[in-house]
């Protein structure tokens, strides 16, 4: 099962609404089950550097089928996955990446959001992922 | 002058319609005046390898403010710009990248399309660019 | 709004004067609003390795519209942006990168300075940025 | 012997004058004897994609101590250096890169120019190199 473009657009649309509702400007990326980009939107005035981060968050969430923040806890100094960010041409392991599941609970892609605090990034990513 | 997300979404929407009208499945990328991605859509079933090509076409069109196919004529063996594709982390110099201008004729971004023949790619890119 | 070459040259000129005044040898880079290099100077005898660092500092400051040192505090182990440096082909998040604003307070580019202690790097970057 | 920043600035200044005199907008890069960037200027309105090309031309000219166009003749299909552009993270082998020599004829650096036809690029590079 793979996310469709129509679903990805719905994810981005809901994420944009949430972003506006909490007064932020976000880069929003959606990847499919193969971790390849399906849709992307950079809101006017959003940080340029968050473009790459949002895509890397979406890929990271699908690479390991979990929220990026969970990996970030394991990649700290002394933890089991220290510096895992060096793999896959660069992971981003702080919050803002969330897997997207279909009605059966199967992972069909992931969303990555960047442009504010990691808490806000995660809130917007969660809103987008829950649109499916 | 820089393209807005709303303008970029309109460009992609018109490009998608054109793509469907000629029975193709495209990757469509829009970059701003700084050659940074603003919006992207991969239609269901479109070639995965065209994802990167569409983004590189959009960047290439903005890097040199001309249709990508023009550069491709000049980069052939024996021509003045042979192997220019090695610059800028990889250019794509066949048709499918087109600058986007505002009402005053100023370049505000570019569109890149990939997923079919280069003729079809260019047709869809032209349709998208003309939406502004 | 985008920085002009004349403005970028003034930024570098003032930064060089400051660098000499505090007896340092610097690499100084200025990027525009799109985070693309506009002007660069490496003072005689400045560290070679600081060439890339100065450019990455300038890009990083524009990517997130803040001084690089602020990001560096957030990217420490246990902090919210741990290992953000893996994004955007490599960020530099210690001091020495500063956004450049015009008279209206709009960010039109950024300066990155590297070649001495991070305190000195920041001092010279601040001097350069304040030239506009 | 290595080019000084003062010399590099003179090279760029003369190249800019020449560029204006022939009504072009150029990216101009100067590298030292170690092929590392010393100074760079992007004239207002110059092609963004020429930024990387000008630096690669300067490096290429110093890597092989000859005008870049000479290498380009040897890198054509069937010629001895076919596709040499794949080395050194990307060479640019069409005209616009010229070694810079001191009064004793020793090579102390190189200039790379990009932003117009390769003939114009070379003309401006020659003018800059002859300033020393």
Automatic annotation (TrEMBL), chains A, B, C, D:
SUPFAM superfamilies: GlcG-like
Domain of life: Bacteria
PANTHER family to which the protein is assigned, alphabetical: PROTEIN GLCG (PTHR34309:SF1), SLR1406 PROTEIN (PTHR34309)
InterPro entries xrefs: GlcG_carb_metab_protein, PduO/GlcC-like, PduO/GlcC-like_sf
Name of the protein described by the UniProt record: Heme-binding protein
Pfam families on file: HbpS-like
């Amino acid at each position: 099962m793979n996310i469709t473009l129509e679903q990805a657009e719905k994810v981005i649309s809901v994420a944009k609404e949430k972003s506006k509702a909490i007064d932020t400007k976000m880069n929003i990326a959606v990847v499919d089950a193969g971790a390849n980009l399906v849709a992307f939107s950079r809101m006017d005035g959003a940080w340029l550097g968050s473009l790459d981060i949002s895509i890397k968050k979406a890929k990271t969430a699908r690479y390991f089928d979990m929220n990026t923040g969970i990996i970030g806890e394991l990649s700290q100094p002394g933890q089991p996955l220290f510096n895992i960010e060096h793999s896959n041409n660069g992971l981003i392991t702080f919050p803002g990446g969330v897997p997207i599941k279909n009605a059966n609970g199967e992972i069909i892609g992931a969303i990555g959001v960047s442009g504010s605090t990691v808490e806000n990034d995660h809130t917007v990513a969660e809103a987008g992922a829950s649109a499916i």
